[in-house]
Amino acid sequence: MGTRVFSLILLPTLQCNADCEYCFEDKTNDRLSLERLQVLIDKVLDHLVARDIGGLTIHWQGGEVMTLPPSWFARAEDLIGRAAAARGLAVNHYLQTNMIGYSPRWNDVIRTMFGNRVSTSLDYPNLYRRRLGKDATDYNTVWTHKVRLARTAGIEVQVIAVPNAATLEMGAERFYSHFVETLDIRSFQVNTPFPGGESNPAKRQLPHDSEALARFFTELADVWLERGYHSGVRVGPFDELLNYFSSAPALLPCIWTDDCANHILCIDARGNVAQCDCWVASYPDYWFGNIFDCDTLGALLAKSQVLERFHQRPMALVARECIACDYLALCHGGCPVRAFSVHGTLFEKDPHCAFYQSLFGHMASAAARLARMAAEPRACRVVPVTGRVSPPSN
Ligand code: SF4
Ligand code: SF4
Ligand code: SF4
After folding, report:
1. For ligand 2, is residue 337 a contact (CB within 6 Å)?
2. Would you tell me how many other CB atoms lie within 10 Å of the CB of residue 232?
3. Which of 127, 148, 282, 319 could form a disulfide with 197 if both were Cys (CB 3.0 to 4.6 A apart)?
4. Which residue, judged by its Cα, is nearest atom 6 of ligand 1?
5. Domain contains 265
6. Counting ligands in written order, which one lies closest to the CA of residue 194?
7. What is the C-alpha to C-alpha distance for residues 149 and 363, in angstroms, rounded to an integer?
8. What value does the mean pLDDT take over residues 13-38?
9. Has residue 276 been placed in a domain?
10. Tens digits of per-residue pLDDT, 317-328?
């Protein structure tokens, strides 16, 4: 069996206990039964065997996954483990949750199925995340309590944060301090927001101005390089960009893969198959089909004209817009859903293009400075990763 790994974003429930303003999901009461999960996973694994792909990573998302009971996941893990073993495949599981429904009842399944690690979401300042019928302050309070409870049980909590207009105004230093020094989060990723799904006042502010995003991200990278890089704090996407520009193995976010449709697929609780969660939740015209209506997943994908358009996008952008870009081999035109949610077509480059170029240039310079430092005799070493020169450390 090959060594390639495929990613499946699986939404076993479309219910959610939150009501975030920029959510792109059409929340419903649909849930995946274990009987249907068996059918789904058999088709996915058979497809991987046919493509000589040796591993599957399942990213469990919702809705909110913790609206299902932990016992459902324990049985799902068993079912998937047996199906994978029968085909000689390896499966890893990742959990994305808002943590609102977390209680110690989840500890066993988080340990055995998810490697004692969860990924969750919090913005700072939080303007848009809230529980149903509550305000953002309540969300912060409940989230902080649940995250502390989980960490007390030894669970590693990684955070995804999305900057809003107030974040950009507040600046990178306060943002970093809040996550790392106040909340003691040692691993977080900053994603760019996009106006996916039905429009509303919060989404109409998107996308943010590229210059403001570039300023915030490059300042945040500098704060991290100065205060967290050497002490094991991980901040994405800076850590992986640094790897990339240092010619080290890098696990870059999907927005910068050559063709995300080659590596990722999403299936929701009703069996709809699409490129990722935003497509499956918001754009039914862009579904590839339904896994419960096909003989094999391979046949479903082979006859999907929508999928064919995803495959055509990178080359179309290279030919038209990105050919002269220094970062083409890294960025490939950026994310299809970010382009679509702003321009209404797949065949435009990512609206964050200018911001990406600034960030790539900044991280390339940082990688070069770190490489020069590593090559210097130790007694002469300073820490100029931010462009400021610190006193010698020893
Ligand atoms: S927690 Fe996620 S699915 Fe639920 S409302 Fe917020 S963004 Fe949407
Ligand atoms: S459309 Fe964008 S977010 Fe979705 S899988 Fe592709 S690159 Fe990732
Ligand atoms: S940075 Fe812009 S021009 Fe360069 S590959 Fe990405 S989208 Fe295309």
Report:
1. yes
2. 8
3. 282
4. 20
5. yes
6. 2
7. 35
8. 91
9. yes
10. 988 889 999 999
241-290 tens-digit pLDDT: 999 999 999 999 999 999 999 999 999 999 999 999 999 999 999 999 99
Helix (H) or strand (E) holding 348: none
Gap between the terminal Cα atoms of the chain = 50
pLDDT above 80 (res 380): no
Q: How many domains does the chain have?
A: 1
Residue 348 resides in a domain: no
Query: For ligand 1, atom 3, which residue shows the shortest CA distance?
Result: 63
Integer Cα distance of 145 and 102 in angstroms = 10
> Which whole-number Å values give the CA distances from 376 to 369, 370, 371, 390, in the listed order?
11, 10, 9, 15
What is the whole-number distance in angstroms between the Cα of residue 196 and the centre of ligand 2? 12
* Element (DSSP H or E) covering residue 329: helix 328-331
- Structure-token pair, residue 262: 């080659």
Where residue 72 sits, what CATH number does that domain have? 3.20.20.70
25 lines ligand 1 (CB under 6 A): yes
Residue 336 lies in a domain: no
148 Rama sector, left if φ>0, alpha if ψ -120 to 50, beta otherwise: alpha
* CA–CA separation, 246 and 84 (whole Å): 36
User: How remote is the CA of residue 368 from the centroid of ligand 1, in Å?
Assistant: 39
Tokens of 385: 């990763």
Domain span including residue 225? 5-300
Q: Region 64-70: what's the mean pLDDT?
A: 97
The answer to whether residues 237 and 224 touch, using CB atoms and an 8 Å cutoff, is no
For residue 378, what pLDDT is reported? 63
Q: Tell me the per-residue pLDDT of 96-139, one tens digit each, with 9 for 90 and over.
A: 999 999 999 999 999 999 999 999 999 999 998 999 999 999 99
Q: What is the pLDDT of residue 376?
A: 80
Residue 44 pLDDT greater than 50, yes or no:
yes
Q: Which one, of 114, 106, 115, lies nearest residue 147 by Cα? A: 106
Identify the pLDDT of residue 190.
Answer: 97
* Helix orientation angle between 70-87 and 34-50, rounded to the nearest 10 degrees: 30
Strands (E), 76-155: 90-95, 117-121
